[in-house]
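User: quick one, sequence for these tokens?
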């Protein structure tokens, strides 16, 4: 049984719905899933898998509720060497900044020494109007590796 920290970046609530569905699936498979809507670095365990579920806001930015965590990660060193993360980015491909917000957080974590646990998913709401379905399919492909 693994513990997964689900970091949610949302403006209008869509990413939160996706995170809730992923948490339910993880719990049904016997894992612990902690959802963080206002994640604070001091409350996150770097030995747990961090599952980032986030939309992009504005011109390729993270949603406001993930901005403080991004800054905390930027200001910290040495704790990310053992961290593994998975990225579920949600966006609209009609914008040239498609999924760039959550990509910034993933890139920063990698720069700080963290590694991707699995290949990311970029959900395009133009193609997948119910992003929860695409996210669950992605999760089910790797949940057995936890």
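Assistant:
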């Amino acid at each position: 049984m693994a513990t997964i920290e689900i970091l949610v970046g949302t403006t209008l609530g869509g990413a939160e719905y996706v995170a809730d569905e992923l948490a339910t699936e993880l719990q049904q498979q016997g894992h612990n899933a902690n959802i963080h809507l206002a994640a604070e670095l001091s409350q996150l365990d770097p030995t747990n898998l961090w599952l980032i579920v986030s939309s992009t806001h504005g011109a390729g930015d993270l949603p406001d509720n993930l901005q403080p965590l991004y800054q905390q990660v930027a200001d910290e060193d040495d704790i990310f060497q053992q961290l593994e993360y998975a990225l579920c980015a949600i966006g609209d491909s009609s914008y040239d900044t498609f999924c760039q917000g959550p990509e910034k957080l993933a890139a920063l974590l990698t720069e700080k020494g963290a590694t991707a646990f699995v290949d990311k998913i970029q959900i395009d709401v133009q193609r997948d109007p119910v992003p929860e379905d695409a996210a669950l399919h992605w999760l089910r492909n790797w949940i057995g590796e936890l």
